[in-house]
UniProtKB/TrEMBL annotation:
<feature type="domain" description="Core">
    <location>
        <begin position="5"/>
        <end position="104"/>
    </location>
</feature>
<dbReference type="GO" id="GO:0051539">
    <property type="term" value="F:4 iron, 4 sulfur cluster binding"/>
</dbReference>
<dbReference type="InterPro" id="IPR016092">
    <property type="entry name" value="ATAP"/>
</dbReference>
<dbReference type="GO" id="GO:0051537">
    <property type="term" value="F:2 iron, 2 sulfur cluster binding"/>
</dbReference>
<dbReference type="InterPro" id="IPR035903">
    <property type="entry name" value="HesB-like_dom_sf"/>
</dbReference>
<dbReference type="Pfam" id="PF01521">
    <property type="entry name" value="Fe-S_biosyn"/>
</dbReference>
<dbReference type="GO" id="GO:0016226">
    <property type="term" value="P:iron-sulfur cluster assembly"/>
</dbReference>
<dbReference type="InterPro" id="IPR000361">
    <property type="entry name" value="ATAP_core_dom"/>
</dbReference>
<dbReference type="GO" id="GO:0005506">
    <property type="term" value="F:iron ion binding"/>
</dbReference>
<protein>
    <submittedName>
        <fullName>HesB domain-containing protein</fullName>
    </submittedName>
</protein>
Length: 119
């Protein structure tokens, strides 16, 4: 199983974002940071090239980077992009998350609790 799975909608949304920022050949980096109410938060950034610890996965022509240190926390995570009347946004479904905050922006796993902050 791939560490992170991007749906077709998510991959095409990111490719459009990269293209509009003159990074058509760039990579999407998915990471986990400490913080938030529950201890861990997701991060996504555009990168010019992979780092030494990055796993490279490709979906629908988009190259995705996941730092090998974050791989256990992200293993089996699906990222989708949904459009609604209120706009669009990425939805992250992490099978490893055992708790999340009320707003859904932070989480923790059974083995990694991160650095929870006061809400």
């Amino acid at each position: 199983m791939a560490t992170v799975i991007l749906t077709e909608a998510a991959a095409y949304e990111v490719k459009d974002m990269l293209k509009s920022n003159d990074m058509s050949h760039g990579y999407l980096k998915i990471k986990v940071n400490g913080g938030g109410c529950t201890g861990l938060t997701y991060g996504m950034s555009a990168e010019e090239e992979p780092g030494d610890n990055d796993e490279v996965i490709e979906y629908y022509g988009l190259k995705v980077l996941v730092d090998k240190h974050n791989a256990p926390v992200l293993n089996g995570t699906t990222i989708d992009f949904k459009q609604s009347l209120m706009g669009g946004g990425f939805q992250i479904d992490n099978l490893n998350a055992i708790a999340s905050c009320g707003c859904g922006s932070s989480f923790k796993t059974a083995t990694v609790s991160g650095n929870p902050e006061q809400c």
